[in-house]
Specification:
The protein is an alpha/beta fold. It has helices at residues 2-6, 14-17, 23-32, 43-49, 66-80, and strands at residues 37-39, 58-61, 87-91, 96-100.
Length: 107
């Protein structure tokens, strides 16, 4: 997270706020602050697509190597930071997959 802050990105890191927040609490905070969620946790896709939760945007990072992850996330944000809202994005070492989020009623 420090890498993102050093690059000038305004981020909220859940571990710094309150460890152990539930996914539902994170989604609520994301909506309150109008922030996209960047995560390694696939459960957020389930909450959005199967449970109909509304979020500004989600970036699911699927990269194991820490150094590769840092570089790839920074490159992604440099190119797509204005186009995260409204999308569920999966970021891997080699690909970026984006799917438009449809609006659902919040449960």
């Amino acid at each position: 997270m420090e890498t993102l802050r050093e690059a000038g990105y305004d981020i909220t890191w859940i571990r710094e706020l309150r460890r152990g927040m539930s996914d539902d609490e994170i989604i609520s905070l994301s909506n309150e602050e109008s922030r996209a969620i960047m995560t390694f946790d696939k459960d957020f896709g389930e909450l959005v697509y199967r449970s109909g939760r509304i979020v500004p945007g989600i970036v699911l990072v699927r990269i194991a190597d820490n150094e590769v992850c840092k570089r790839r996330v920074l490159d992604f944000l440099e190119e797509y930071s204005d186009a995260i809202t409204g999308y569920f994005t999966v970021l891997t070492e080699r690909r970026i997959r984006r799917r438009r989020l449809t609006e659902h009623r919040e449960i």
